[in-house]
Amino acid sequence: QQQVKQSPQSLIVQKGGISIINCAYENTAFDYFPWYQQFPGKGPALLIAIRPDVSEKKEGRFTISFNKSAKQFSLHIMDSQPGDSATYFCAASKTAGNKLTFGGGTRVLVKP
Amino acid sequence: NAGVMQNPRHLVRRRGQEARLRCSPMKGHSHVYWYRQLPEEGLKFMVYLQKENIIDESGMPKERFSAEFPKEGPSILRIQQVVRGDSAAYFCASSPGLEQYFGPGTRLTVT
Question: Which terminus, N or C, of chain A has the lesser number of Cβ atoms within 10 Å?
Answer without folding.
Answer: N
